[in-house]
Amino acid sequence: MKIETKFPRENARDYALRIMKNNILSLDLKPGTVISENELATELGISRTPVREAIIELSKAYLIETYPQRGSFVSLIDPKMVEEARFIRRITDTAVIELACEQIDEKGIAVLEENVVLQEFYLSKGMTDKIFDLDNQFHKSIYDIAEKDIVYEIHSTLMLHFDRVRNLSVSTVKDFKVVGDHRNMLEAIKAGDKKTAVELVNKHLNRYQIDEKEIRSKRPEYFKA
Amino acid sequence: MKIETKFPRENARDYALRIMKNNILSLDLKPGTVISENELATELGISRTPVREAIIELSKAYLIETYPQRGSFVSLIDPKMVEEARFIRRITDTAVIELACEQIDEKGIAVLEENVVLQEFYLSKGMTDKIFDLDNQFHKSIYDIAEKDIVYEIHSTLMLHFDRVRNLSVSTVKDFKVVGDHRNMLEAIKAGDKKTAVELVNKHLNRYQIDEKEIRSKRPEYFKA
DNA sequence: AAAGATATACTTGTATACAAGCATACAATC
DNA sequence: GATTGTATGCTTGTATACAAGTATATCTTT
Lengths: 225, 225
What we know:
2 copies of one chain form a homodimer. The first copy, chain A, has 225 residues and is mainly alpha-helical. The first copy, chain A, is globular, with a radius of gyration of 19 Å. At the A-B interface, helix 3, helix 4 and helix 7 of A face helix 3, helix 4 and helix 7 of B. Chain A binds a DNA duplex (30 and 30 nucleotides) through helix 2 and helix 3.
């Protein structure tokens, strides 16, 4: 469990939420780990109440399971859950990138262009750890362009199911492909080419489907069924 | 604010959540209404903690807005929010009904058939208030058939944005159309006719788009912008 | 030794107390 | 009269106390 310091004006609940999300995503909180409200509260230097509130929110996203009077646990990787998260991601990404193709303007192009340039830069420097955030930011920008930013927000926590599996795969090998996908998506959006854009989204998301089976055998204790 | 009694084994948080959802949906809690944690707690006969936890959850779904040290309010109807909820509903319903066309079996047909028969029965008896729940149940069943029940669950609270606008419209006039839609959807699913099924979903959801503008002028105080 | 009762140390759920900030009413001052 | 300071009562945010249930270890009993 890696604990960063609290931001100046960040309230205790958001702080607890941020730390827990990060650690679940990075697998520093491994699937199945026990989470004690009291313990976490003292570790974070806050009281039980905001910690508990954060846990409840993660429970609603099925990232933590709470059994009354017994304990709370980081959810095991549930293939059905991952599949449904991927499903949501696929159909919304698809619909949103079509809208982006229609509604794109120069400002939007500039935002995406800057992002992809940075990805290409960090890739060429081998700083692939920077790419994960840029990846997410790229997709968020597309939602912004399509004026579906609330949809993105609503689904963001849920996508941790998806992203934590990403983090389990030997992903760095394929970073250059991911960056290439983004470059191609950008060009398709600029050209208003919906068909290609949609194809790219599906190809992009399919990259992660294969890895899941790889790691299943390596870390069976992380999986539910 | 209409307050029903607590279920036997229902915990205080779920109780508060249920009551608040119902009242927001039915507009007994009108958009803009102040919600005091203390007041609601005493009304429900529970303490502030579970009430607060319920309010936080509804805040995450943008159904309540909380301003620290100032108060919490039932969110005004935000056309962008409604539009994004409708967007989610449309694209997921579309994708899910396609899957249902592929994965339907006799058991699934039986469930849908029973539901539609009941809708037709209540419609013929003029008991249109029963139809709302059956409508939701019908759609949930389709998600179950497509094995996307978590997707339904995740989105269910969000759909209150959509449903409360439904409740504001002079909807009873069109109940027979809604029931007809469901009958047609069922037949399309049985026939495995994806194209027709998708068309029906879009037609179905478009029925509510018109009403919004009608009521906007009648109840401008409910709207955000 | 095996089985069962029991104490104990946890857990989450709920209630309550306190802290900090905002808004309003009202009084004092210019 | 207008403005400013202030007291008051509200709000949510956080901390803590208590309730109730579970699991485990240990002791007692057979």
